[in-house]
What we know:
alpha+beta, 10-stranded mixed sheet
Amino acid sequence: MTETDTARYDLVLVGAGIMSATLAALVTELDPRLRVRVVERLPAVAQESSNPWNNAGTGHSALCELNYTPRQADGGISTVKALAISEQFQRSREFWSSLIQRHRPGMDPSGFIHSVPHMSFVLDDDGFLARRHQALSQHPLFSPMQYSQDHARIAEWAPLLMDGRDPHARVAATFAHMGTDVDFGALTRQLFGVAQARGVEVSLGMTVTGLRRQHDHWEVEFGSTGGGRAQAVLADRVFVGAGGGALRLLQKSGIPEARDYGGFPISGHFLRADAPAITSRHGVKVYGQAAIGAPPMSVPHLDARVIDGTRHLMFGPYAGFSPKFLKTGSWLDLPSSVKPYNVLPMLGVAKDNVPLEKYLVSELFRSSASQFEALQRFYPSADPTQWTKIVAGQRVQVIKRRGRTGVLQFGTEVVSSADGRIAGLLGASPGASTAVAIMLKVIRLCFADRLDAWQTELARLIPSSQASLADDPDAARRSLEWTTGVLGLSR
Ligand SMILES: Cc1cc2nc3c(=O)[nH]c(=O)nc-3n(C[C@H](O)[C@H](O)[C@H](O)COP(=O)(O)OP(=O)(O)OC[C@H]3O[C@@H](n4cnc5c(N)ncnc54)[C@H](O)[C@@H]3O)c2cc1C
């Protein structure tokens, strides 16, 4: 039996990860009178993908991720995606900077973002990295990036990469000092702190079990995660920021737009090292190239991390398969998401992605020794006794209907009802770094009637929301200069 609370909210957010935290802070900054409630199934915020040990903490700005600059048929390099992602990350930096200027000490950049240079590192390069460097460094968002094939120079940037390496090996690297490491868990907590100071209510340990449309509003049903009496509140708008749990909830809502989607979970793990003897010798994030058949988010990288003020190293992610949609999810997540309306797209994806399936199966059965060799390609003298395996967050890749079949997408997808009263986020890449750009899209879909009134405040909070940094180098320079200063990053 459900007890309906008389409480009615302008917005109910399902899930307390970085996406809901960003939306809660953003809308209450735009209109502090909004009544907002957050319902989270776990006992604390940011315990799933947004937890710093469940993701790699890269502030994705396309400085080092080679898959954002694909080769073109004529041998050239496409920079379109890299510019778009860099611009989106810059919007996040602007929003965080505005909040810091308004809400210090509650918003404290030293608690969530650190300068950690970004490197790309390629063995036996055929000239791709030099061409990529040439293409990107024209733009101020990338211009201080350096390129080298010289062992001594690369060793200055990242000593561990060259320790014990064959002195005749053909290597190439780029180095961008303006890269960042972000603790998205700490950021989530700070953003909720700002939102709660504005009156946002956060209910922890409560699982949302039902979403029912009632005339011009939604009834959101939830109960204690361990079980117990269900209760419900009314919401003018709902954002399903439930990470891997979003697909099942959107399906439960019954909106026809959710019928175009399925989900394919990819699990993973990282190797982690904490010994100061090695963490003190690696202060960069180094991205390599993906193995053949590997999904783009399985590109190996050796990351310096700063979590709770302490330096660590993480390497991975190693992809795998589990039918769970959340790290703390259920083995039934995948089977129960298959419905008569999405079974054909899901079967189509299974038929069309045999190399990916083979890759995931081979990863599942790969020995620890062979996995460690992947790390040794980056760090030849790595010692297995200094590394431990940790389970990473779960990703649910989007399967989208296309005609009678489906396609597997590696990006994020905002799914919303035609009237904008409910929206949810599927997918995980490029992820937390671009949370602000994704939530701006949610605002455009769900608060279209208030956009005109919010325009001036939005321009104050996120100046680049009104411009294109990719097309306006002066605006890009101004944005970098301002946010580098406020976030306390290296120049
Ligand atoms: C291995 C890995 C590496 C990554 N690396 C990076 C990176 O380097 N840089 C980057 O920018 N991004 C990265 N990402 C992506 C990033 O972590 C995610 O995009 C981001 O954390 C998603 O945030 P979220 O708020 O949507 O989901 P989550 O943080 O997963 O939060 C969803 C919340 O919803 C709750 N929930 C679910 N169902 C319910 C329900 N029914 N009722 C109530 N609550 C519910 C969950 O408990 C959870 O707390 C990575 C992800 C993974 C998995």
